[in-house]
């Protein structure tokens, strides 16, 4: 029911001043992205790294920045992720994630959001990106839209996905302890399982992915690569892992994928489980992480048919796919690690 105008209490002066500042922040957040894009395109983090980890504005003048200040700038953890050619274990260069998210095609798709909401589009619902540009993202046809965008997005997703496996093994090693076999479903070029095999050499690992991905995966003595379709069948193993796969799919598709996972694993008593590594939306990691998770949810809504999920959403799809129980093992940064039992 609409509020009665008599009962509306006007905000206080302090509330209005805060509201105005909030309005500025929400209207201007895109400038943060654009400033980041500018720093990446000027190679500023790499330049600071090459100058020994600290640089003055004069040092950076060769990047066409000028200034008389002698303040020095050091790499913070965010700029560490943007240093090219860093020789450090676990270092994944995130430049292409940034360039993809601030690309003209992503921004135009986000600008079309209101039009997309007003359209009565048939199921399966295309994303605003697909509706506007005529091709889905991360699809064999994306390169017909723009080859450079396609390359940037593929590299950006690979860098994004490979960031946390070292941390996961260090903080949640029990996840893999005692496993004899593991299938990494949608495991890409096998980077994740190579990390797991390094820590747990006795686990026999299989990577399932689409034929075009498997074709270019680097050969590895201990990795069994299988080209296939996770909607059709998944190579059997004691555990099947879905790392950053399900957020790309809608709920119906997630249930179909999970049903295939259930067929591929033994009973709970025999150690059968599905390991899911994906965002679990929620406040528990603090407001900044929650904001990051919600922005990733919007990124999915604008550019893919998928979404991020909170614990209730996850529970519902596990139950629909016929699983009996699950456990959120740990939350690492913005992501959660879930074990799901048949
Ligand atoms: C976002 S990537 C995640 C890659 C990997 N799990 C990681 O964490 O680095 C999703 C992966 O699912 C794969 N994929 C998409 N559709 C698939 C299908 N029908 N069957 C098997 N793999 C598929 C993609 O090729 C891609 O490698």
TrEMBL record:
GO terms for molecular function: O-methyltransferase activity; protein dimerization activity. It holds the Pfam family Dimerisation. The active site is at residue 247. It comes from the Eukaryota. Residues 24-62 form the O-methyltransferase dimerisation domain. The keyword S-adenosyl-L-methionine applies. Signal peptide: none annotated. PANTHER family: O-METHYLTRANSFERASE (PTHR11746). This is O-methyltransferase 2. The lineage of its organism: Eukaryota, Viridiplantae, Streptophyta, Embryophyta, Tracheophyta.
């Amino acid at each position: 029911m609409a509020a009665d105008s008599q009962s509306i209490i006007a905000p206080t002066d302090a509330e209005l001043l805060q509201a105005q500042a909030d309005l500025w922040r929400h209207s201007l957040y895109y400038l943060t992205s654009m400033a980041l894009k500018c720093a990446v395109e000027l190679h500023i983090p790499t330049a600071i790294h090459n100058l020994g980890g600290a640089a003055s504005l004069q040092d950076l003048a060769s990047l066409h920045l000028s200034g008389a200040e002698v303040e020095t700038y050091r790499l913070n953890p965010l700029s560490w992720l943007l240093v090219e050619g860093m020789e450090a274990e676990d270092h994944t260069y995130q430049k292409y994630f940034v360039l993809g998210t601030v690309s003209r095609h992503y921004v135009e798709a986000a600008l079309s959001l209101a039009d997309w909401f007003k359209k009565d589009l048939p199921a399966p619902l295309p994303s605003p990106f697909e509706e506007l540009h005529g091709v889905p993202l991360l699809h064999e046809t994306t390169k017909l839209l723009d080859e450079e965008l396609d390359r940037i997005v593929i590299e950006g997703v690979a860098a994004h996905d490979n960031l946390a496996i070292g941390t996961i093994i260090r903080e949640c090693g029990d996840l893999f302890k005692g496993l004899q076999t593991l299938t990494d479903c949608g495991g890409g070029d096998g980077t994740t399982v190579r990390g797991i095999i390094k820590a747990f050499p006795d686990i026999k690992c299989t990577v399932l992915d689409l034929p075009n991905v498997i074709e270019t995966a680097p050969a590895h003595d201990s990795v069994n690569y299988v080209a296939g379709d996770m909607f059709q069948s998944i190579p059997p193993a004691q555990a099947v892992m879905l790392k950053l796969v399900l957020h790309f799919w809608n709920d119906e598709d997630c249930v179909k994928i999970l049903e295939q996972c259930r067929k591929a694993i033994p009973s709970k008593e025999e150690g059968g489980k599905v390991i899911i590594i994906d965002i679990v939306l929620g406040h528990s990691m603090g407001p900044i992480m929650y904001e990051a998770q919600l922005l990733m949810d919007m990124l999915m809504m604008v550019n893919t048919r998928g979404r991020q999920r909170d614990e209730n959403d996850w529970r519902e799809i596990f139950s629909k796919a016929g699983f009996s129980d699950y456990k959120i093992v740990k939350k690492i940064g913005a992501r959660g690690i879930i074990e799901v039992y048949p």
